[in-house]
Amino acid sequence: MIQIQELNKSFITKKNKKSSVLKNINLEVNAGEIFGIIGKSGAGKSTLIKCLNLLEQPDSGSIVIDGVDITRVTKRELRLMRQQIGVIFQGFNLLNSKTVYDNIALPLVLQGHYSRDEINARVNSLLELVGLTAFAKKYPRSLSGGQKQRVGIARALANNPKILLSDEATSALDPQTTNSILELLLDINRQFGITVILITHEIEVIRKICDRVAVIDNGSIIECGNTVNVILHPQHELTRKLIIEEETTRYLEGVSSFYKFEKNNDNHLILISFLGVQTFEPVLSTISRDSGVIFSVLRGELGRVKHTPFGQLLVEIKGSQAQLAHCFETLNSFNLHYEVIY
Ligand SMILES: Nc1ncnc2c1ncn2[C@@H]1O[C@H](COP(=O)(O)OP(=O)(O)O)[C@@H](O)[C@H]1O
Ligand SMILES: [Mg+2]
Fold first, then answer.
1. What is the CATH number for 325?
2. What is the tens place of the pLDDT at every residue in 29-59?
3. Residue 202 maps to a domain
4. Which of 84, 130, 148, 164 sits in a 20 to 30 Å window from 236, CA-based?
5. Could you tell me if the CB of 219 is within 6 A of ligand 1?
6. What is the span of the domain harbouring residue 267?
7. Is 242 within a domain?
């Protein structure tokens, strides 16, 4: 549905130097999928998403949406094209002087050719979709972050777009609210078949709803694949850092007041990932019994990668060199994926 080819974008810095922000980006997004793009701050994510609706004009390359290269269309065609693309942002970008209803109605009013009844019907169905019917007459300032983002989503869907772009839409929200917004996006994707391109620096967001993911670093795509494969078998060292080490480091920092991992000769910190039926196997007790290592579970999580059961355990194992070696043999024999973090 969307083919990005050899896309380049640079900015001229204050010192009049050219700084390349997107370098030869090639990506293909299929119709109806939720496609994630993950990368650190400053990697070029927002610039990439702005190129997708030509808020930024690429230096070179093509962006083909449904067969049309949007970098080569007329202004009028571009306007029509943009109606096919809804966008939601981290900061919500609502108009504070307008009610929830009027914020959602705005894109329809701007079109200029809808009757009041048509707008009313559309806005009411969107309010219902995002669960804000009772808030129609409220103003954004009286809403929570999650509710504001729901208004943002409803407004982005007003023109019935084929594509929804999300730039860190959940980054300002707490984990619970993030979940409910991700559920809503998943629901919208399923119900209407809208293609979603979602940009984030959080692997959790990718894991929960993305079918495929691309990793962007310093303006280049360094890895792209099915979410499960990329999370379990990151090919690039930077990907591994981004999705495994950073998560772990952040977690260990969080618990550092009552637990400190110290690397010695007789221990390792490992992250074991379980997928599908493996999620329910007694891996740890088998390893401990067979190899004699002892372990402490530092963090455990059962969830899903999209629809597949998925578990992750962060475990400190302790034992002699021989026991540790045996432990890794047993882990290997289970054919599951693990990463030795330290
Ligand atoms: N309009 C602009 N002018 C100059 N530099 C910019 C502009 N927009 C972004 N940049 C630079 O491009 C790089 C990538 O920015 P951005 O796409 O916002 O990254 P991300 O969204 O991944 O954090 C940054 O170094 C940023 O400073
Ligand atoms: Mg950004």
1. 3.30.70.260
2. 999 999 999 999 999 999 999 999 899 999 9
3. yes
4. 164
5. no
6. 261-340
7. no
